[in-house]
Amino acid sequence: MQLPKGFKAAALAAQIKPSGKPDLCVVVSEKPCVWAFAGTLSTAAAPSVTRNRDLYASSVPVRALLVNAGNANAATGRGGFADNAEMAARAALELEIKATEVLTASTGIIGHRLPMQKVHKGIAALEGHFSTDFTAFSEAIMTTDLVPKRSEKVFSSGARMVGCAKGSGMIHPNMATMFAFVFSDAKVDEILLRSHFQGIVNRTFNAVTVDGDTSTSDQAMVLSSGEIETSAAEFLAALEDVMRDLAKMIARDGEGASKLLTVHVTGAASESEALETARTIAGSPLLKSAVYGNDPNWGRVIMAVGRSYTQVNYELLEVSVQGVRVFKGAPLEYDAKIVSSAMKSDEVVFEVNLGVGQARGTAWGCDLTEGYVKINAEYTT
Amino acid sequence: MQLPKGFKAAALAAQIKPSGKPDLCVVVSEKPCVWAFAGTLSTAAAPSVTRNRDLYASSVPVRALLVNAGNANAATGRGGFADNAEMAARAALELEIKATEVLTASTGIIGHRLPMQKVHKGIAALEGHFSTDFTAFSEAIMTTDLVPKRSEKVFSSGARMVGCAKGSGMIHPNMATMFAFVFSDAKVDEILLRSHFQGIVNRTFNAVTVDGDTSTSDQAMVLSSGEIETSAAEFLAALEDVMRDLAKMIARDGEGASKLLTVHVTGAASESEALETARTIAGSPLLKSAVYGNDPNWGRVIMAVGRSYTQVNYELLEVSVQGVRVFKGAPLEYDAKIVSSAMKSDEVVFEVNLGVGQARGTAWGCDLTEGYVKINAEYTT
């Protein structure tokens, strides 16, 4: 996958990951970019998140994003903040741009100081690895991901947008141990972009749940160099499509997952209540286990509706599993064997009508398998 | 274990559970009891919960508690409410007391109407099974529990208090797929009891988390026949001890659990923030998996602190695992092998000082194992 015009990327193995796989990468734009950003709500947010948030608040244009995987540089005390600032400054020096034009992101183990010598050596060596290909960058940001996650849109103007993401565990609203980075050469008004970005994040990355854990490092951002004129509507629609694609890829690649779990909620009092209910259902360990076992145990859907504490009319409540309606104010007769067979699919869809209003929302998750436990009991400190 | 003076119990197999194990039981008091009650906060609360809540609001004395396991009578529409009322009325008829003196509780599969013929037949047959022993009752309320959960206190006056609980999955604040029933012949002032009960529930059952799911059926209650004079302080202390014992038994018997996870939080701004933080830590799937794997991955503790959104001073934050301090404002040097060995225990204790205030709180959970997934993928509808 090629980057949009005016962008280049480099990736290499700086030996931060014990595996020796690529773990340090950068995307650079020839021109200053307008950008939008959302970061973790965790009070233990990592230095890279708080620094990017500060830059975002000051509305400076940016030109580069430097990412390391293998070490989250989180819960590392004051030293961790200094390390992060130094990482940005070094990259700026090498790229011959200002430090405030460099965004940073770190993912991996929490609570260990960054190996700064390796980081510096890696940053100095990036120069020899630049190309206009996006592939190596999108792979170097991975941690426990099994597959790289990329999405692309071409505009009618010829402008392009590419995005990549990482994340498969500690994935929960709001945000997760996830990164999503989107780059475009399409022109967009910065104020418009900023005003729409959080809403798009809410309907995409914040609608993904893998395990209910929220990380210290999550970031989603879009950088646009504005080389090519594009309609605002087309830009925002493309951005939501790319981010939704990436969000679903994260859910499908959830740690240990064997299938994608999609929950559509309609009839809600508001979009936020629809999303809240959908996420609660998609995040229920009991329902996730039932999905793994192909068990149409829709009682667990109602349990999750009940504990989402949103407005529900239980006399009108409807629940469907794989298109088969199983509850409408009361349990309906249905053939459990047929529904169970239909659940033996790589996507299981629940539809829930709360019977209250007109708002709707969708959330994505995955099944809970023995694999999740195995991965996380053995991921070593 | 014997019931307090003036109480008797009966249990039998009414064939509600497919296994044919005992599933219908009752405790009856000779005298009207003062009582206190807490039920699930789920908006999908089962008919037995809403009926008990209504009775509690009207402050009527009660004399009996009828429980069935194997069917939660939840999400059963209007018919389910009628079935529950009928169950209480039938029991009252058999016991020759008023229907408003009979509390009910149902647990098991959600979304199936109660087999009322079996229930009626069972209620009629209870008469032949009464004794002063508590054992059969405490076993008949079980569903996926591996062990019965009972606790007992003897007062200086000779009065006694016995309690039993059930629950091992769908266990999360607030309350869970859990019942806790406490009976005593010690005298207690009803207004005093009611005013303290929710606080005790908060520090005991609401501090237990197994999987983050909150059920439709949860109930905790205490009934006191008031036969024997006792000091109020002694009564309340005994009640908290019994309820804490039962709460820890529920955590230890969490579905698939191999060990008890105890989280002590100190230095919090308030008791509720301490409890919230402790529960978030004890409920983290990632930390639970690490505990299973004997991995002192304390970064996951900080991740959970961050997503509990309570007040934290990260410069003063302290974390200990099995008594070994691993973080104090920044990561500390420690021997991971020694801590990992210490975690190979049937109880793993984390201590977290938030560095803000003087309040403290404790939560209990369990590790997350392949067993949890297996149980819940296969628990059939």
Can you give keywords for this protein?
homodimer; 381 residues; alpha+beta; L-amino peptidase D-ALA esterase/amidase; Ubiquitin-like (UB roll); 2 domains; five-stranded mixed beta sheet; 11 helices; 13 strands
Protein model, in words:
The structure is a homodimer of 381-residue chains. Residues 172-176 of chain A have low confidence and may be disordered. Chain A is globular, with a radius of gyration of 21 Å. Chain A has 11 helices and 13 strands. In chain A, α5 (190-203) packs parallel to α6 (232-252) and α7 packs across α9. Helices cover 33% and strands 27% of the residues of chain A. In chain A, the strands form 2 sheets. In chain A, strands 1, 2, 3, 4, 5, 6, 7 and 8 form an 8-stranded mixed β-sheet that branches. A 5-stranded mixed β-sheet of chain A has the order 11-10-12-9-13. The first copy, chain A, has 2 domains: 7-252, L-amino peptidase D-ALA esterase/amidase (4-Layer Sandwich), CATH 3.60.70; 260-378, ArgJ beta chain, C-terminal domain (Ubiquitin-like (UB roll)), CATH 3.10.20. The first copy, chain A, has helices at 47-57, 77-95, 116-125, 135-140, 190-203, 232-252, 271-282, 285-292, 299-306, 336-343, 370-378, and strands at residues 7-12, 24-39, 62-71, 102-109, 149-154, 160-166, 179-186, 219-228, 260-268, 318-321, 324-328, 347-353, 359-366. By secondary structure, the first copy, chain A, is α+β, with helices and mostly antiparallel strands.
